[in-house]
Amino acid sequence: MTKQNKKNELPKNPTLKDINWFKKQLNWGELPPFYHLVAASVGEAEGVFSHGFDNAIKRITDKRNWNLALLGGEELENGEIKCDNPPRLALYQVFTERGFELFAFPYAKDKEIDQYVKENKLMEFKVWDPHAMRNVLRINQLHKYIQFYFQRGDEADKALILHSHKIVHKTIEFLKSELNIIKVSGVSIKEYYQKAERSADACQDELALAHLMANEMLQKKE
């Protein structure tokens, strides 16, 4: 019995594969549709560091697209680009109707830019295309999933939410190492989770109080 319990536990730092396996153990070998939707989105966000396909992070960190003349960089004879002053970015963590999103905005002097710009002397990127570069990552329907967890979720659901937070943190730290991140603003997954937790606790307190008052009324009638 003890061995079985240990086997069904998550490791201390679970991977998405670990969490998916654990969820199956709790759900008769299947992944519920809502869980699968969020987990697939988490996997896609995590995959930007390993998959070969084009994505916003690769476009943003591509030094060939940096305005080296403005940044004081140069391309060496061997083709290597040297630039000690990377472009500036503002990052925003936002919960939209689609879920959690991490947005990036470049600067022109001290102004954040949210439009298509090409070959502008004030821009630190040669080309900034919001459609391809603004949305760094998205985790579909995460806001609804966090709410679902506090209603009737399990340990695997919580692990998936925590894992999504780690991925976003890893992404932000990577961008900080490659670019000049001026600010990180908005509402993080951790903050949204804690707010939902407080709301759930408040609802439970209200239910407990209503139950207590109902019992008191019954006692008075008796």
Describe the structure.
This protein has one domain. 50% of the residues lie in helices and 19% in strands. The chain contains nine helices and nine strands. The longest helix is centred in the last third of the chain and has 33 residues. The chain is elongated and about 60 Å long. The chain starts with a helix and ends with a helix.
SSE topology:
Blueprint: H1 2-7, H2 16-26, H3 33-46, H4 56-60, H5 68-71, E1 74-75, E2 81-82, E3 88-96, E4 99-108, E5 111-112, E6 117-118, E7 127-128, H6 130-133, E8 135-140, H7 142-152, H8 155-178, E9 180-186, H9 189-221
Parallel strand pairs: 3-9
Antiparallel strand pairs: 1-2, 3-4, 4-5, 4-8, 6-7
Question: How many extended strands?
Answer: 9
- Shape call: elongated
Radius of gyration: 23 Å
Oligomeric nature of the chains:
single chain
Which runs of at least 5 residues are low in confidence (pLDDT < 50)?
207-214
Features:
222 residues; alpha+beta; 5-stranded mixed β-sheet; two-stranded antiparallel sheet; 9 helices; elongated
Brief account:
With 222 residues, the protein is of the alpha+beta class.
